Amino acid sequence: MHRGTDTVLACVRALEASDAERPGLLQEVDALYRRTEPLVLRAHRTRGTMGSSSPRRTVARQHAELVAGAFRRDLCRVDAEPQEALRELAGKLVTVCERYAEGRVGRLLPEADLGDVEPVTLTRQRLRETAHMVGVIVAMFCGALAAWLGCRAAGLPKGLPLELAPVVGMVLGGLLAGGWQRMVRVAELLPGR
């Protein structure tokens, strides 16, 4: 509910902003939406209105995937029709927050809002993120190997610590492939953290 409310407020600020201020506010809407979508997809588990083995859970999960798809559709229209798309996104978020508070996780949005929507699945998101993380790890090791081989081939003086080259190469490879956020996630996987 809090994330949804924050996203609604960001939509309203972007709606009321001048053309010069709107780009920064749209970035805020994007950032908040990225945090809101996973919560919507897990609403049927977090609300506590059904047990883990309830047959209603599958229907609620499928509905949440459609709701996330409707949100994404509105979010992707922001560049073409900013006023209308932001209003619709904010309206849908308000409806979802209200229905979540009421415990109606199987009907977060009315069926009329879900027509021709491509569902967003957690499985697809997890596979995509896993592929990104594997790419970052591979890039880190390739960067470390390239730095180590490069330092050996360059014949650097013996006083320089050659052990640091692979570490620098690993960090650079990871940053180039995945950015800071994914590098932080990889760092969290290292022993001793």
- Total count of helical runs of at least 4 residues: 7
Rounded to an integer in angstroms, the radius of gyration calculated over CA atoms is 22 Å
Helix content: over 70%
Uncertain spans: none
**SSE order, as H and E?**
HHHHHHH
Class inferred from helices and paired strands: mainly alpha
Question: Strand content of the residues, in percent?
Answer: under 5%
Q: How would you characterize the largest beta sheet?
A: none
* Intertermini distance: 31 Å
Shape: elongated
E-strand count: 0
On the 0 to 100 scale, the average pLDDT is 83
Describe the structure.
- The chain is built from 7 helices and no strands.
- The chain is mostly helical and 193 residues long.
- Helix 1 (2-16) runs antiparallel to helix 2, helix 1 (2-16) runs antiparallel to helix 5 and helix 2 (22-41) packs antiparallel against helix 4 (56-76).
- The protein is elongated.
Provide the fold topology:
Blueprint: H1 2-16, H2 22-41, H3 43-46, H4 56-76, H5 82-102, H6 122-154, H7 164-189
Helix pairs in contact: 1-2, 1-5, 2-4, 4-5, 6-7
